[in-house]
Amino acid sequence: MNPAPRLSDETCESYFSDTAYDIPASYTGAGTSIVIVDAYGSPTIQHDLATFSAAFGLPYGAGTLNIFYPGGKSQTQTAHADPFGWSVETSLDVEWAHAIAPQATINLVVASSPNDSVVNNAIKFAVDNNLGDVISMSFGSDEAKLVGKNSNAIQASQSTQIFAAAAAKGIAMFASSGDGGASDGYAVANAGYPASDPNVISVGGTNLFMQDDGTYVGETVWNDGDPAQCPFGCTRGIFGATGGAPSKLFAASPFQNAVSGQAARTTSDVGYDASVYTAVLVYIGSFPNPAQNGFYHVGGTSAGSPQWAAIAALAKAAGVSLSGLNAKLYGAAASHPAAFHDVTVGSNDFQGPGFSAGPGYDIPTGLGSPDVAKLIAALQ
Fold first, then answer.
1. CB–CB of 176/137 below 8 Å?
2. Cα–chain-centroid distance for residue 266?
3. Continuous H helices in the chain
4. pLDDT at residue 116 in the model
5. pLDDT recorded at residue 228
6. Tally of domains within the chain
7. Which CATH number do you get for residue 153?
8. Which residues are CB-contacts of 123 (< 8 A; sequence separation ≥ 6)?
9. Please, what is the angle between helix 116-128 and helix 151-168, to 10°?
10. What's the predicted TM-score (pTM) here?
11. Which H helix or E strand runs over 135?
């Protein structure tokens, strides 16, 4: 999650991805539920969502957003986490899940801290209580931190069991692939978790280019670290690059191995707009100084996870079972190639080694970004 400075009224413009990603207005997600899991949450999220909805003509009312605190509330600054940063993440996740599936119910499950065990309990609460048809997780940790018998590895083992329980219930799960490129600062490629879990659909990042009316033009791999790949001259600076790498913990499923050719599970599975330079607008109302509240451009692969979760909700409302959704996405790409925009330009070698995009499946952007109308038709 990467916010850019607030824009003036003269430059504050954004188009929903409805046109570029071919989301028909009749697709609303009515009757479905989306779980967003975040730590700390935001004290102003209901107001933020109402303001966002009013600005873009989206429905908003009682029951649109429900908030759960399975471990109680906490807004304590610590040496390891910033509640304000999580409040921005919360606004991004909730607002853009709502933008894509405006009549789906959003159930925000707030962990009282970002500690692995606390977040695991929040996800388990959502699964045990059947709070959603789909769950979005815009967070992660490098797999390099999960090797061995340390507490991180133990908590990852526990979360893997939770994800398996969700899969057994037919709940689809999405996670962002990361914003530090393929290596995230390590000397070798390093996948992020939970995106690398076989029961989770990993969302990589792109630069999305549209015409002024929102018509799709094309996409490249999101990578601000290479001037040749950074859109519009990187005038705001460097923000990051999409994750995506072979897992050191999990083997590839047969349906992924068939297109990746790798024995290891690889992230990403799919792609979505993530660059701050082609970012979405998010209303943030939780600044300590209220004068700073307003609409900001926000990017990162954490923007793609809730939007893909909302697309899954649209599919569910259209009669698609979400059980085994990841395999179904790979099947749809094989049988209906037009269901995805194939991203073939760019790489995620950000401050370390990486991988290049190419025709068909590739590690930075997976199967590609969605043509939602064609994808749902293929899944049906």
1. yes
2. 16
3. 45-56, 83-100, 116-128, 151-168, 254-260, 301-317, 325-335, 372-379
4. 85
5. 86
6. 1
7. 3.40.50.200
8. 37, 109, 135, 137, 159, 162, 166
9. 10
10. 0.94
11. strand 134-137
